[in-house]
Amino acid sequence: MLIRNHEVFGQVSSRQTIWRYMDFTKLVSLLEDRSLVFPRTDQFEDPYEGYLPEAAVREIRANKGALGFSDEHANLWIKFPETMRKQLYVSCWFASEHESAAMWKLYISSSEGIAIKTNTDSLAAVLNASTLTIGMSAVRYIDYEKTSIPFGNALFPVIHKRMSFAHENEIRAVIWSELTDNRPQIETQAMCVHVPVDPSVLIEAVHVSPAAPAWFGALVEKVVGRYQLHLPVVRSGLYSRPVY
User: Fold this and answer.
1) Whole-angstrom Cα distance, residue 228 to residue 121?
2) Most buried pick, 5, 127, 145, 189, via CB within 10 A?
3) Residue 10's pLDDT is what?
């Protein structure tokens, strides 16, 4: 079930085009298992993932009385993200109307990569069909030195990132394993969560890396057809020479 009208989640435009850049093996896994993989946030490369900004920590310490925090409560609030990082699972998507040269280079380890193109409504539809309770939000990029975040909900840090990552223009779906509905469905300390999805609902098109050889594009078409998915496989022309 997708969480709606929530103070943390729900900041997503309708039918916004989003992309997921991945290696070919991950596409095969998605089609074979019919599931999206949500890695745990403490496995992400960004060391600040899920932590409070420095500005928020300073605000808590300086204004704990006005915030109604005791010393113990303030320290618990500052340290709690370390626990949350092991309870939060995230699927990350790049929001853009256009294919991105930067994303191909950042997220594809070889020329044999693909990008799934979809939109926020289709992603919301497959997540809403899940028995897990899932939130979805645009990530808010802030200066961690200067800008604080709200303290009303411990989930706020997971939808904030440093300005250095603003190029990711990220939409993320988030699962908190400790929600009452989610707890019995997620193994304790699981490194990732597999969310069942219908690929025919989720995927609008599969784009093949602009650096991929012709045989690889043909292979992607065969694999997509083998799973009886009637959707376009687009061979990227990003680096094609102009013809005038």
Assistant:
1) 22
2) 127
3) 75
Residue that is written with structure tokens 């093949």 in the block: 208
Contact 56, 140 (CB under 8 A): no
Percentage of the residues of the chain whose pLDDT score is greater than 90: 78
Smallest CA-to-CA distance from 91 within 198, 13, 170, 200 is with: 170
Pairing relationship of beta strands 113-119 and 205-208 according to DSSP bridges: antiparallel
List the chain domain ranges. 17-235
Beta-carbon contacts of 24 under 8 Å, excluding residues fewer than 6 positions away, are 112, 113, 114, 216, 219, 220
CB within 8 Å of 162: residues ≥ 6 apart: 46, 48, 141, 142, 143, 144
Q: What is the pTM of this model?
A: 0.93
User: Can you tell me the mean pLDDT for 143-164?
Assistant: 94
Q: Distance between CA atoms of 232 and 243, rounded to whole angstroms?
A: 24
User: DSSP labels for 58-89?
Assistant: HHHHHSTTTTT--HHHHHHHHHHHHHHTTTEE
